[in-house]
Structure formats: C-alpha cells, structure tokens
Amino acid sequence: MLQPLHDYVLLKREKEEKTTASGIILTSGKEKSKLAVVAAIGSGVKDCEYALNDKVLYKEYSGTTIKVDDEEYIVIKDEDIIAVSK
C-alpha cells in the first residue's frame, strides 16, 4: 500500500457499475464520481475532519490517478477534500 507524504491523502475510488440493475450497459463516457474512500493520510495533514475509511468528496481535476493491483487510487492535497459523507 502506498503511504502519502506531507499534506497528501490517498483515496481509493469505488468501482463503478458497468450495468444497471435492469441490465442496461453503461457507456464509458459517463463522468466519474468525485466520491472516494480515504485509504491513507500523510503525516503533514493536521486537524482534518475525516478519518481512514471515510467517504469524501474531492475537487474535480485535482490529484494524480494511479492503478495498483487492479484498484484505482487518487493522491490529492488535503485542501482538495471538500466534504465528508456521514
């Protein structure tokens, strides 16, 4: 598992459904969700309002996307997290 440095946060993107419950195939042109799960927090992050495994909303076009073991992650600055799902 990657450990972010400084004020960076590692988010795990949730796998998006490729078909609906009724069997309709979704196209790949669909916009990706901006919700992800906090997988790791850098040591420079202070006084954050989220914790490991919380679902958070992050700013569009922020961070660096990486793929590890068929899972998609995004590394972003702490300040780019804008909401926590409760």
From TrEMBL:
InterPro entries xrefs: Chaperonin_GroES, Chaperonin_GroES_sf, GroES-like_sf
Signal sequence, renumbered to the chain: none
Keywords recorded for this protein, A-Z: Chaperone
Keyword Glycoprotein (UniProt): no
SMART domains: Cpn10
Domain of life of the organism encoding this protein: Bacteria
GO MF entry, a single one: metal ion binding
Functional note: Together with the chaperonin GroEL, plays an essential role in assisting protein folding. The GroEL-GroES system forms a nano-cage that allows encapsulation of the non-native substrate proteins and provides a physical environment optimized to promote and accelerate protein folding. GroES binds to the apical surface of the GroEL ring, thereby capping the opening of the GroEL channel.
Family assignment from sequence similarity: Belongs to the GroES chaperonin family.
Subunit structure: Heptamer of 7 subunits arranged in a ring.
Name the UniProt record assigns to this protein: 10 kDa chaperonin
Organism this protein belongs to: Faecalitalea cylindroides
